[in-house]
Amino acid sequence: MKARAETVRDVGACVSPMNSFLLIQGLETLSLRMDRHVSNAQKLAEYLEHNEHVAWVSYAGLPSHPDHALAKKYLPKGPGAVFSFGLKGEGTDVREDGKKFIEALQLFSHLANVGDVRSLVIHPASTTHQQLTDEELAACGVGPEMIRLSVGLENVEDLIWDLEQAFHALSRSTRA
């Protein structure tokens, strides 16, 4: 009864033939895609670490990260493609800056998902955690300046361009 009531409800009775085929196809190319995900994430993290509009970057692939040595030891091909960074406060409202930055992006999709072939971005303080005060955000480790990226397979130069133009748009909007 448990298998029928819970497992069937949660995962379905069986996978359709087409879905099985697509799943197998995806698994066969996963290692190739992960190489690109991780390579792109590393380059973006390095770019962001030296960007004047960024306060901090949390990516274990960077030597400045406190867990970099562990990441190199346990994740020799790279620590994945999801990481976060903090915007430097350009205006008086950091939450509003994060929202404006997200709205200015053109290539990154504004979604809470992770692990897509497309690059995704979210500003938790104005979306998934918007009901929390700044103090509550700080208590759970999510600052109002935090932006989370899930880096996809696009050309990394295009992704850097998108981040740059969003930083410039944010700078222009806070000066106005």
Concise description?
With 176 residues, this protein is α+β, with helices and mostly antiparallel strands. Helix content is 49%, strand content 12%. The protein has helices spanning 2-11, 17-28, 30-49, 68-74, 94-104, 134-139, 156-175, and strands at residues 54-58, 82-87, 109-110, 120-122, 146-150.
Major pleated sheet: 5 strands, mixed
| Succession of helices and strands | HHHEHEHEEHEH
Structural class: alpha+beta
Mean pLDDT: 89
Shape: globular
Could you tell me how far the N terminus lies from the C terminus, measured between alpha carbons in angstroms? 64 Å
Quaternary status of these chains? single chain
Tell me what portion of residues adopts beta-strand conformation: 5-15%
The number of helical runs is 7
Could you give the count of β-strands? 5
> What is the CA-atom radius of gyration, in angstroms?
19 Å
Poorly predicted parts: none
Read across the widest sheet, the strand sequence of neighbours is 1-2-5-4-3
Approximate helicity band: 40-55%
